[in-house]
UniProtKB/TrEMBL annotation:
It is a multi-pass membrane protein. Keywords: ATP-binding, Membrane, Nucleotide-binding, Transmembrane, Transmembrane helix. Its main location: membrane. Residues 66-353 form the ABC transmembrane type-1 domain. This is ABC transporter. One of its GO terms (cellular component) is plasma membrane. It comes from Streptomyces dysideae. SMART domains: AAA.
């Protein structure tokens, strides 16, 4: 298909060598599990899955678990008693077919039957209520653990291609965790029904028991195979489903909605979406057919096996090995056993599927996809001296180092600026200074202690960062500045920070001042312009009582007046902090005590602004280029 104007390339025709979006599935390990989706593994895994379900439930509500187990045991026993009572009543009825005077003999059995049926109905309601109480709590607990693991992962985790996929897989685990209790409980009650029926059959004629189990085999195999086909299809379509998810987001997200329209991009993106959707559909269709074939074969085999069982009952009756009453009882028990078996296989399969996703969740919770923060425990004081010594850094999976042998330092009360061309490694250096990333080699120290030995959370309490892409929290203006961590002076501190960044002018115009919600898209709050947001972000950093202040392009969206205000007030805002500043507007670096010039990941110059613009080198080159534009402008004004 082509776009409206006929000029859009077909998304399916990819030029040779063109890189394509590819996502790693959460580990070959899930695929391995699919390979292990066999009857034997199922039998081995199910008990441990049920144990796991109850231990998760135990963590959230012990009383409910005890009550649930008690109800299940009583329900199972009464189910078995009910079956015995049914068969007893049944045999009395058959034996007394021509002698009604013996009917009263059936009264105890019938009473027991009615009693157990009533009790089971009541217990069923109690079990349902307890499950409904437990399920959402299990799900919430699972989600809490997953979020806790995610926020305790290294920031670098997001640069590992597998991390997001593993997080997605864990989310699916959270989602299915709500079904665990129901599935476990249905599985257990099916097992109880089957055991009761098995005991009755074995007491009538022991050979019927293995025959019954034999009849169950084809159905079990078919169910497991069918589940395997489904799971493998899910794995096979994972990449395309992720691409579709991502494209859907790009097509409808507000941030790009203007460009999707003005760039007439929608047909091209939709074409890519369609190409992925078609591949998913093709795989799903194949899987549907495979499942249908398996179902037909399974049903035929089950039919044959059931005929053999019924034939055996008739044979036993015909040869006088069992009485008519026993045959009637056997028929009843067989029906009951069939229901139990069906449940056992069906719920067992559901539970196993849930278990596969739960494994993904558990792996993520245990190790945050191998990225759990695992650093030292030293609690630092506000840093007086931060240094990088011979630091080299390479992003995970990157082909080359981003920083090479960098030496850098900043002291309390100093303002240090970092400049360099795009991609020279300035933001990367900021991430190392603030401990978001650890160096690949070399060392970053806070007062002589390697940041790898510091408790990361304690360290970040002394860190204040304005990143290039700062967050716009859907909260009030006050919360956006305090970040839920107000200083003892309360709003006075907020207003002071707002004055330093120029955010006070923004707040003045807001309908409820600091209490205005800044989240128009979501909660009917107010929308700010990018520059107004940036003033709030700088106020946030000024407000934070942190020894290290890192500002990465803090004035990129600001008008000249606002930018001027921030840089002239920077020394005052800095107070006794160590300040590191990244900026492309080189004139702004005149406020700094020292300037570091980065080129392709190396520090190529250091000195004051005036020293650097007056000596040959990259800084002077960049400065001249900037002045060149100013000269053009001045020339334009003169003419
Ligand atoms: N998450 C990442 N994973 C892999 N490589 C990255 C990542 N972030 C940055 N890089 C690479 O590191 C290099 C330096 O990026 P960095 O963002 O530090 O540059 P910068 O100097 O801040 O650039 P700019 O002036 O454009 O902000 C770039 O070549 C970039 O491709």
């Amino acid at each position: 298909m082509h776009g409206d104007n006929g000029e859009t390339d077909d998304a399916n025709s990819v030029p040779a060598g063109e890189e394509q979006l590819a996502f790693n599935h959460p580990g070959g390990d899930s695929l391995e599990l699919a390979e292990l989706l066999t009857g034997r593994t199922m039998a081995r895994r199910l008990p441990s899955l049920i144990r796991r379900t109850f231990s998760l439930a135990w963590e959230v509500d012990r009383k409910a678990v005890v009550a649930l187990l008690a109800c299940q045991i009583v329900s199972g026993v009464s189910g078995a008693l009910g079956l015995f009572a049914t068969t007893k009543a049944f045999s009395v009825l058959i034996e007394t077919a021509h002698d009604t005077s013996r009917l009263p003999a059936a009264i105890p059995a019938v009473s027991l039957l009615a009693g157990t049926a009533g009790l089971r109905a009541l217990l069923g309601i109690a079990i349902q209520a307890l499950s409904n109480r437990l399920s959402p709590r299990i799900c919430r607990e699972a989600e809490y653990k997953m979020l806790e693991a995610a926020t305790n992962a290294e920031q670098a985790a997001y640069d590992h291609p597998g991390f997001n996929d593993r997080f997605d897989a864990a989310e699916r685990g959270v989602d299915v965790s709500r079904h665990m209790i129901g599935q476990s409980q249905n599985y257990i009650s099916s097992l109880a029904t089957l055991i009761a029926a098995g005991v009755v059959l074995a007491s009538l004629y022991p050979l019927l028991l293995p025959l019954l189990l034999l009849a169950a085999v084809p159905q079990a195999i078919a169910s497991i195979r069918s589940e395997r086909v489904t799971y493998l299809a899910t794995v096979a379509t994972h990449k395309d489903r992720r691409v579709m998810y991502m494209l859907r987001w790009h097509l409808i997200a507000k941030d790009q909605s203007d460009q999707v329209r003005t760039d007439t991009l929608a047909p091209y993106l939709l074409e890519k979406y369609k190409a992925s959707a078609e591949r998913v559909e093709a795989t799903s269709n194949t899987a549907t057919w495979d499942r249908a074939k398996i179902a037909v074969l399974g049903a035929a085999a089950t039919g044959l096996a059931s005929s053999a069982v019924w034939g055996a009952v008739l044979l036993l009756l015909g040869t006088g090995r069992i009485s008519a009453a026993a045959a009637g009882t056997a028929v009843f028990a067989l029906r009951s056993a069939a229901t139990g078996l069906q449940g056992l296989v069906g719920y067992g399969r559901d539970l196993l599927r849930t278990g596969l996703y739960l494994d993904d969740w558990e792996r993520f919770v245990k190790e945050a996809a191998g990225q759990r923060l695992d650093r030292g425990t030293i609690t630092p004081q506000p840093p007086q001296h931060i240094a990088l010594r011979q630091v080299t850094f390479r992003y995970p999976e990157a082909a080359q180092d981003t920083l090479h042998d960098v030496d850098f330092e900043v002291r309390q009360g100093e303002i240090v600026a970092v400049v360099g061309e795009n991609g020279s490694g300035k933001s990367t250096l900021m991430k190392l200074l603030s401990g978001l990333n650890l160096p690949t080699s070399g060392v970053v120290t806070w007062d002589g202690i390697s940041i790898a030995d510091l408790d990361p959370h304690a360290m970040w309490r002394h860190t204040s960062v304005v990143p290039q892409d700062f967050a716009r929290w859907p909260m009030t203006a006050r919360e956006n500045i305090t970040l839920g961590q107000p200083r003892p002076e309360g709003d006075l501190a907020v207003q002071r920070a707002a004055r330093a960044s120029g955010a006070d002018d923004v707040i003045k115009t807001l309908r409820s001042g600091l209490s205005t919600l800044l989240a128009r898209e979501w909660w009917g709050g107010v929308a700010l312009s990018p520059g107004q947001w940036q003033r709030i972000a700088v106020a946030r950093a000024a407000h934070r009582d942190a020894g290290l202040l890192v500002m990465d392009e803090p004035t990129s969206d600001l008008d000249p007046r606002a930018e001027h205000r921030i840089f002239t007030g920077l020394r005052e805002m800095a107070g006794d902090r160590a300040v590191v500043l990244v900026t492309h507007n080189l004139a702004n670096t005149s406020v700094a005590d020292r300037v570091f010039v980065l080129d392709k990941g190396r520090v190529v110059q250091t000195g004051t602004f005036h020293e650097l613009i007056n000596q040959p080198g990259l800084m002077q080159d960049l400065w001249r280029l900037q002045q060149d534009r100013d000269a053009y402008r001045t020339e334009g004004e003169d003419t």
